[in-house]
Amino acid sequence: MEHIKTYYREEVQVNGKKLLFEGPISSEQIDCYDYHPGLVAFRQPKEQKKALMGIAELPEGRINVAVDDGMIVGYVTFVYPDPLERWSESPLDNLIELGAIEVAHEYRGAQIGSRLLKLSMYDDAMEDYIIITTEYYWHWDLKNSGKSVWEYRKIMEKMMNKGDLYWMATDDPEISSHPANCLLVRIGSRVSLEDVQTFDQIRFTDRFLF
Q: Where does the record locate the signal sequence feature (predicted)?
């Protein structure tokens, strides 16, 4: 399918600061920004900034960011599913994954993640996609948050709901390995019933095994 990217931006007062929310942004735009040193959930800052630039160059890749005075303090990524996950085996070319969402620690609690997700769904092209995110408790910042696994799960699910992603059942082994793990999905309004049925077959590959 054709990957259309329509740029959106908005400025929002957050805790007395004017933050810029924008995207999808290009690799060149990312390179022009500073990168908050506290964004270390997946890689060290320098490597993660480079990874975001790489995603932005992909036809389907989308990077939306929260920026404070020229510095990226939060981001969300959308890409095709990881080749190592079952979702990549899908024949659907309109199945994309919310690959990562991260907000610098001192900016948390201000609904920046929720605002990034809302911004992501402004784009009408998202109505053509099935969007998934796989949440694993071992990726969550339980130590710094002071939250239990279940408290953090509730926060993550509430945030994802702001982007219209909701829980769906699956027999995926990695997700099923812990009850706090979950699959959340947004099905665009223009996704065909046939594509939804194909997606359901991926969610439950062992449906007919007894």
A: none
Is CATH 3.40.630.30 correct for 8-203?
A: yes
Give CA–CA dist 208/206, Å, rounded: 6
Quote the pTM value: 0.90
Are the beta carbons of 44 and 1 closer than 8 angstroms? Answer: no
pLDDT tens for each residue of 82-122? 888 889 988 999 999 999 999 998 898 889 999 999 999 99
Place of tokens 């270390």: 40
Q: Where are the domains of the chain?
A: 8-203
Over residues 153-195, the pLDDT tens digits come to: 998 899 999 999 999 999 999 999 999 999 999 999 999 999 9
**Residue 77: other Cβ atoms inside 10 A:** 25
- In degrees and rounded to multiples of 5, residue 197 shows phi and psi of -65, -40
* Calculated CA dihedral for residues 108, 111, 117, 122, nearest 10 degrees: -140
**Cα 50 to Cα 41: distance, rounded to the nearest angstrom:** 14
- Backbone φ and ψ for 160, nearest 5 degrees, come out as -65, -35
Q: Which residue has the tokens 């389907």?
A: 60
Residue at token pair 């408290």 = 151
